[in-house]
Structures are given as structure tokens and as C-alpha cells.
Design the sequence.
């Protein structure tokens, strides 16, 4: 309300207060008769939906599949996505990041300059506009944002700049799978940081790490059920095609995940198998692998412990490809893993023996390079970061990925700060969170949590137990039929009581019950087209953390039945809510 | 805060309350030092940006152009878009519409079925995925939503269903122009209604009309400046390629608009020139136009008043194309506009005379059809809906378009309710609002409003005067340099006072001043890299409705300078905010 003294124009307060909300606070509670939330029976989901949590998302009316790797988000799914977004927005803005939106359909010129038009290969959706200009559907926005910020910032005084967006991204997945986890079109948060030197960029990287920690702690939070275990972890990761100096993945442990993470049993060390390291243990038995340079100029013999696996990055580090078994190299170079510390003479014998049957005309050994890291870390290996720990392997869903990019993009596109000899390229970082993947990972845990909480096998029910911060609604008020005016009045009074922020201590036979549910988060099941039983079943499937039932017990005793996600049921006398 | 009596687990209230907001209420106020909002000088915008409001959006740091017809929205633009979205969300949900999100990348199969793959022509962005499957970037979602709802609803009991989304749409515009008004990628709200019969569908159409009225009244609201004129209007429109039975466009009057609307000076009648009608006035002088059927089987002579223009839809109604001047038709049919009521014999003479010089071998007149509507309505014509009004022409920006679709899509795709002989196709409506176009139209008016409010030519400034409901911020607190701890403390105290919802009546020399600005809507200009003058200039350019200056006047007298969008400046003593 803004009243200007002289003019006395009153702007109606409804308008003044209702900004910035994804849905109206005025529409309290949300009536299920007006919310499109179709639930499905167990047999309505196809056998192809092999993932239990996806089946439940379909059955609960959260999502629908539109094509392979493509989903429509229904109102309940949208509410969860909006809550996840809300948490991300808060934590991003807490570290001074501003929200922007860049186009999804981009010209290809900048991508040619950075070399990613080729590097992204067939994962990139490409098209041509009516004039024949080559365009792409953005899978990420490093090029675009580098130009946006780089073309306007020319002084270190204006840095740091941190901008992020939450929007659709596209990737031409060869094998869309696992429901929301690997899709052709997905919702992503992408943050970009710009600093004037490497130290400042590292400080930005650390700030984002703390923000990510807050985000995932808030999103994956089942504390209200007494669950204190953290389900996510940050792991060292490979920078891959994105480039840059270092990188972390954020994972949620899950058997359907596509990543394998090795984590220490004793310390906080965690890394993707792609780049995990372990403490070298002296080896007793050895193997020799043959590789070559791409141009076949040199043959390489790699000496590793017998049971070890070559590290996926080792080949790249030395510029090697598999030996083609042909031709004759002049030189034979020997690379020795740090776990195989041996005198050069012994190594020569091992190499000669190891390749004697494979190479007809063995070249002379030209160099021996010991103490390199050739082996991938494996479960059971001793941790490289602490004295006592051993590495354990977990399957995990990658929900976030951060990269300290350095000057990879600013150099390629020519953007920097300062002038003349003082001019330096912008130092960048980029940071993603897969918003729809977070929803998929949440669903996996929430379905397992349901099973854990509902051990009574006779119920034969299924559903979700969501974290409070992201549940589509905090509470459901469910009056049994018939929906008499008196009962609906009581139901509305209950909604208002829950809503007003000063809910009294309600007395139950087992002690006081303190509840406060924000008003915009209450659903009222006023549907008359469904049976009472079907609506109770729906409530379980959808997974409301609190369900208030005005049924037979209420009619007889005046007590409201309160079902809590943890499995507890309480009966409460609530003033003003009596039959 | 939710405290469970038995477990005594307290969920921290910050998490509990902060859902559903586009940005954090906790971050109060927003500090401009951490908001990416680069303003540009007048000469930094290119001469090609011929539209004044676009120049101002660029200069004020609202948007940046990324390519022809493609824009990035910067934080200030995003805040406005989020506010417009918030209003749309509220009004959609007030009529029982649920928010969903469908994919933007769609398969082409359904579009082939409805015939729109061909009908949309080169406006549709087309591409192929890695398997060669034909895909499109959705310009709209009738096909997809018809399948989504149609495949799950099979009983009239489950209707009505109303679902909407707010997301990116794509159109391969041949001539992107006018800044945000005609772009290749834009933000649109699209609502779809499903009913079981035509009457219910009409009721839905009427509900949406009222919701649209609320939306545009709230968005285009300069009442705080004493402006009561409505800048938008609903006009009857052609259904075009979308199909259906009737249609309305929602326009904002503006000289840069691409549509021309004819509106009655006396009644509420308004229609796009494409379909406007006017009262027939008896004509004195006549013209004869020649047309033919596509197969040249019949020649048509159209008799109209001399000065009249053929209605764009008349040709389509009679299945005519322009006469190719060749061949010889056996029959000559005569169509006579209702303004040319004449005896058949007179008409025969007029037609023979009118075409004598153009057709060598004039066929005999086979039929004469009088009282048809052939003429387009023109400015100055008498209104067809009321006795006294005359039509006036306005250039206008189309910001919304609604269609009563009938069964155009449900029949083509085979979706209906009921079974056997009782089965009927779904009755649909579709309803768009161009969200980024609304921003463009707002900018046009807000720039003109600034000029109107700032008649003092010597100031030579430019900027926006936004409606309160959609301004990026409601208020700015601007301390002059140096930013001493005392001054920043006073600035923060002022923000807190504005924020707490119980702002006192501040006394000024000219009477009390009542202000309430929601806390999440205050910006604090704490930038030290810019001069005081540059920041004052920025404040004008961006267009904060209220600016509180802690400058020299405040240092001397303790009074805060309050600049209001209307041009008024007041000085107020505010307790706790003194030097």
C-alpha cells in the first residue's frame, strides 16, 4: 500500500504485496478440484519404466513422458521444481550472483572460435534458420556469457561479476535413460564467475562450493524424520571437454547413478573414478601394456602392478593411443607406475619379457620414466590423503559440476581487462546444477524413505516421503464424504488456523502438538468425483508430509486425525474445528 | 518452523518460510554493488536501435541484444519479467488453471496429423536428431497439450481442465524488428482449456477474458501518477492458421505496433482491421473488381462502393484468387456489397460497363448475390454495433491472443470423452500472452511517461516511469559519497524502516508522507566505483518509483530527500535516520 499524501491515490494492497511469488498466496488453500494432478494405478505405468521412482513420479502425477528423453512437468512436479529453484536463487544471490536469461537458440560463430562446435560432436543439436545460418540449441552458455560480460567489462575495478540463469538446456543424448536423469531437454542452473586474477577466481570457486553445500544440504534434508546422514558429496572430477584447471562433481549416492565415486572411509577425500588417486603400494607382480603416439613415432611400454587398471586420464596425459600392432617404431619408451619402484636393469628385463611374444622386432629402450601415475584407483586401495582410510566405491547420480575454467574461453574469444601491456584475460569459472536431475535423485531417495517408514508389508502401498523444503505441499486437509457445508466449513477453518502463523499448541492424548505450515503450502482435497479411499491412497502416493483427516473419528469424537510422514498418527482437539 | 512434539526436531524457520520466491527475502535490501546492472551512455547504443524504448532498455541495463531477434535479459529485466509472471500466475490460478511445463523440442508426428507442419511453413524451426528423426522447436503447444490431456481424460466428469505454462517459444521470423516486439525466441504464457461441450467452452473463454482484463489492468497501471486511462483493449480478430470459431486480440495502443485496430468512438466495439465490420452506408459511386476461382471455372465480378477496400477475409470466404486475365470462363457471377443495394438490371449495366475494357469476350451473368460483406471497415465508417459511433484507427502492439478452438485439434488427434454413440470430441480454447512483448509495450509507455513527467527540457535526461506493480524495484536508497560507517548505518536503518511494514507517518513541511515498500523490493546503491552524479543519473534512467537520497541536504538538515516518480520532491525527517 502506497499512499501519496498530496494525491491520496491508494494502490490496492493486493497488487502491492503479491509480487515475486510463483503462485498466489491469495489462493489459500489450493483446492485439488482445481489442480490438474492425475494419479495412475500401478498397472497404468508401462513395464518399460523400470525405475521405481520414475513409476512413482508418473503414478503420483508429477511428470509425464512425451517422447524418449523428454518430459512434461505436471503441477505437482512444477511446485517441487519451483521450490528447488527458490533455494538455488537464495544461495546464488547470497554470494552476489545476479539472475539473467540468455537465449537457448544460438548462432554457431562463437562456438567455432572456441573449437567446441567440433568437440561437442553429435551431442549438439544443430539446425539452420530460413536464411541458412547455422544455429545450435545451447547445451551450456560459456561462449555467450563470455561475450556478454567480456564486451562490457574492461576494468578490473568492475570485477568480480557473477551471473547465473535457470533454464532449459538441450543435448542430443544417444541413449536417454533413467527417467529424469538423462534426457534430451533438461532444466539447469548455470552460474559463471569472472575475476581479474587466478587467486580471485579461486576465491570465487570456494564461495560457490559453500553455496552448493548449502543448496544440497537444504534440498536433501530429511531431518524432520530424524535422518541426519548426508546423501550428497563433492568429488574431484575430470575437466573433460569443458576445459579448465580443476573441477568437482556433486553426487547423490544411488545405485541407478551412472557415475562411480571412490570415497575414503576415514577422511573427506572423494573423487570420480576417472580421476581418483590412491596411495601407491609396492607391487610384487607386474604387467606390461603397449601403446604408441598417434603418429606411431614411438612405442610405449607401461609397467604397472599385475591387477591394476590403466587410469582413463593417463593415456591423455602422455598423448597415447592403443598400439596398432603394425609397423616398427625406432624407440621404445618405458613408463613405470609409482607402485613399481625397481632398478632400471630389472625393468629392462620385465619389459623385454613382457613384450617378447607380441613385438617381433623389439626396439632398444630409449628412456625409462619412473614414478608416474598410471593406475586408476580402485575400491580397497589405501587413501592418498590420509594415513588410515581405504577407498570405497559408490554408484552416484551427478547433480552438479563445477569448473575453474581459467582463461580457456576469455583467451579464445579475446576478452580481458586492463590495457596495453597490463591487459590480462578474464579468469572464469562455470558451475552447473541439474535441476530436473535433482528432482530425479530426490524421487529415488523419497521412494526408498517411504519403504523404510512403512515397514508394514500388508499395506501394499507405495509413495514418497519428501524433504519438507521441497515437498509439493506441506500439508493436506482431507474431509471425508459427504462434503456437507458444516464439514467444509470446519476444513476451511483448519486451513485458516494452519495458515495464520500463530497456530496454538494443540493438545493430544500424547502431549502437545506444535505445527506451523505456511499458508501457501496447504492443499484441500475437495474432490467429490473420487471415493474417500481413493483420496487417502492418493495422499500416500503423492507424499504430503502432514495429512489432516476429517473423517469418522472426527465425526464421533471431534478429534482431527493427523498423519505424519514419519508414520506417526496423532489425534488432536482443535478449537473451532469440531463437527 | 515445525516442531514435532515427540521428536523435538526443529526445522529451521528460514528454510520453512523461504519457498516460492524468485529471489531471497533475506537479501534485504539488494545491494547494487552485487547486482549486474550495467548502464550505457546515450552514444553507446547503436543508431540501428531506432526505437527509443529499446535504446532505454539497453541503456538502463535491462536487456542486451545477442543476435538479430534474440535478447539476453539482465537482472533488472528479469525482475520485471518475474513480476509480470507473478501477476499472470495469480490470475491464471484464480480461474482454476494449473501450471505445467511441456518440452520445447517436439517430434513432428502430431504436427503432421493436424496439418500444421505444412501450414506453419518457414516460420517453424525444424531440425533432425542424431537418428534422423524430424523435430521442431515449439512455437505453440496445441498438439502436445491435446495429447497430454486427451490421453488421460475420458469422462466429462473430469472436466473442465485448464493448464498453462510460461516458457520460451521459437519462430523463424523473416524480419525480426522493434526490439522485444518481434523476436525469434520469446517468452509466452500459453493456457489451454478443455470442456465437454460448446457452451462450457464458451464459459471458459469468458472466464479467461476476465482474467486477461485483470492481468492487463494490473500490469499497465500508472494510477499512482493519477493516470486513469486504460492503455490496452480487446479486439475481435481473425482465427487464421490457428483455426477455431472465434478469437480476440489484446492490444496496447502504440505507434510502433504492427497491428491496426478499428475502435468505436462511442461503444466498446474494437476489432483488428483484418476482421472489423462497419455499418453499410448507401453508396453513390461504384467499382467492379474481377476475381476467379482457383481452377478458373467461374469469373467473379465484385461490386463495391468506389472508395472501398476489399476485406482481406472476403476472398477467402468465397474461395477466390485474383483473376489471371487469361482464358475464358463460361459463367460470370456477381457479388454485391451490402452498401450497394440496387435493382438487378442496374447491376447488370454497372458490371458490363465496369469490365467491358478488361475482358474481351464477356460471359453472360449467371447469378447475382446481393447483400454480402465485401468491404473492409475503414476509419470514419459508422460503427456496426451502436447507433452513433464512428470507427477510429489506432496502431497497436498485440500482447495477447485468445482462440475458441472448438474441436479443431481434438478431432484431428482423436481425443474425446464418453463412449460409443455418446462419445464427443473435446472442446478446446487456447490463450496466449507474449510476456516479453508485454515488457516491450511497457517500456514504450514508460519512456513516454518519463518525457511527460519531466517537461523541464534543460534536464536533458531520459528514463522510465514504470507502473508500481512491475517496476524492477519499488525504491532506491542512495547515500552520497563518502560512504562513512555512520551514513551507511543510516541508509541501512532507512531500508529496515521501509521494510518493516509499519512505517510511521513521516512529517514533511508539506504534510504527512505515508509510504510502505515491501522489503524485498528495495535497492541500496552502495557502489563506490561510480560518482554520486553518475548514480543519480542511473537512478533516473532505471526508473525507481521512489528514490531516498542521503546527500548534502541530509547532512545539513537531517532531512531525507524523497524523489517520487511523478516529479515531486519531498524532504522528510525520519526518526533514526539522522547524520
Sequence:
Amino acid at each position: 500500500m502506497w499512499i501519496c499524501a498530496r494525491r491520496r491515490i491508494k494502490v490496492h494492497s493486493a497488487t502491492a504485496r503479491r509480487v515475486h511469488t510463483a503462485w498466489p498466496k491469495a489462493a489459500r488453500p489450493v483446492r485439488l478440484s482445481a489442480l490438474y494432478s492425475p494419479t495412475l494405478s500401478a498397472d497404468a505405468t508401462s513395464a518399460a519404466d523400470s525405475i521405481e521412482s520414475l513409476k512413482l513420479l508418473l503414478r503420483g502425477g508429477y511428470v509425464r513422458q512425451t517422447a524418449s528423453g523428454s518430459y512434461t512437468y505436471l503441477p505437482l512436479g512444477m511446485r517441487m521444481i519451483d521450490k528447488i529453484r527458490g533455494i538455488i536463487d537464495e544461495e546464488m544471490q547470497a554470494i552476489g550472483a545476479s539472475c539473467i536469461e540468455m537465449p537457448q537458440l544460438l548462432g554457431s560463430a562463437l562456438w567455432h572460435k572456441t573449437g567446441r562446435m567440433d568437440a561437442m560432436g553429435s551431442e549438439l543439436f544443430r539446425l539452420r534458420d530460413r536464411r541458412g545460418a547455422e544455429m545450435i540449441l545451447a547445451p551450456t552458455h560459456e561462449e555467450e556469457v563470455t561475450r556478454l560480460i567480456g564486451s562490457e567489462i574492461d576494468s578490473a575495478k568492475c570485477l568480480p561479476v557473477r551471473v547465473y540463469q535457470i533454464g532449459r538446456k538441450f543435448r542430443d543424448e544417444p541413449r536417454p535413460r533413467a527417467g529424469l536423469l538423462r534426457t534430451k531437454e533438461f532444466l539447469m542452473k548455470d552460474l559463471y564467475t569472472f575475476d581479474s586474477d587466478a587467486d580471485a577466481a579461486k576465491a570465487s570457486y570456494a564461495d560457490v562450493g559453500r553455496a552448493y553445500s548449502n543448496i544440497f544440504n537444504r534440498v536433501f534434508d530429511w531431518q524432520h524424520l530424524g535422518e541426519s546422514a548426508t546423501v550428497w558429496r563433492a568429488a574431484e572430477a575430470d575437466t573433460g571437454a569443458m576445459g579448465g584447471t580443476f573441477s568437482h562433481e556433486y553426487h547423490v549416492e544411488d545405485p541407478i547413478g551412472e557415475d562411480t565415486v571412490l570415497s575414503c572411509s576415514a577422511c573427506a577425500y572423494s573423487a570420480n573414478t576417472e580421476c581418483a588417486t590412491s596411495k601407491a603400494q609396492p607391487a610384487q607382480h607386474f604387467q606390461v601394456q603397449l601403446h604408441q603416439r598417434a603418429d606411431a613415432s614411438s612405442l610405449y611400454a607401461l609397467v604397472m602392478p599385475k591387477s591394476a587398471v590403466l587410469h582413463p586420464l593417463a593415456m591423455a596425459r602422455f598423448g597415447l593411443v592403443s598400439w596398432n600392432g603394425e609397423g616398427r617404431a625406432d624407440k621404445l619408451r618405458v613408463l613405470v607406475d609409482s607402485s613399481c619402484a625397481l632398478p632400471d636393469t630389472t625393468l629392462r628385463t620385465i619389459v623385454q619379457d613382457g613384450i617378447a611374444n607380441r613385438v617381433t622386432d623389439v626396439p632398444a629402450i630409449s628412456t625409462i620414466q619412473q614414478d608416474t601415475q598410471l593406475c586408476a584407483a580402485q575400491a580397497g586401495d589405501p587413501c592418498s590423503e590420509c594415513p588410515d582410510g581405504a577407498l570405497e566405491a559408490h554408484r552416484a547420480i551427478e547433480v552438479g559440476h563445477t569448473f575453474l575454467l581459467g582463461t580457456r574461453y576469455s583467451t579464445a574469444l579475446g576478452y580481458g581487462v586492463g590495457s596495453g601491456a597490463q591487459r590480462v584475460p578474464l579468469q572464469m569459472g562455470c558451475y552447473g546444477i541439474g535441476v530436473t536431475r535433482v528432482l530425479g535423485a530426490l524421487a529415488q531417495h523419497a521412494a526408498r524413505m517411504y519403504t523404510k517408514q512403512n515397514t508394514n508389508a500388508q499395506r501394499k502401498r507405495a509413495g514418497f516421503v519428501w524433504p519438507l523444503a521441497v515437498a509439493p505441499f506441506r500439508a493436506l486437509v482431507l474431509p471425508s464424504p459427504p462434503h456437507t457445508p458444516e464439514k467444509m466449513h470446519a476444513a476451511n477453518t483448519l486451513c485458516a488456523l494452519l495458515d495464520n502463523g500463530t497456530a496454538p499448541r494443540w493438545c493430544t492424548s500424547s502431549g502437545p502438538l506444535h505445527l506451523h505450515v505456511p499458508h501457501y503450502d496447504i492443499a484441500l482435497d475437495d474432490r467429490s468425483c473420487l471415493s474417500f479411499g481413493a483420496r487417502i491412497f492418493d495422499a500416500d502416493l503423492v507424499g504430503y508430509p502432514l495429512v489432516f483427516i476429517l473423517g469418522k473419528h472426527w465425526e464421533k469424537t471431534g478429534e482431527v486425525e493427523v498423519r505424519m510422514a514419519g508414520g506417526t498418527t496423532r489425534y488432536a482437539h482443535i478449537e473451532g474445528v469440531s463437527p
Notes: The first helix of chain A runs from residue 13 to 17.
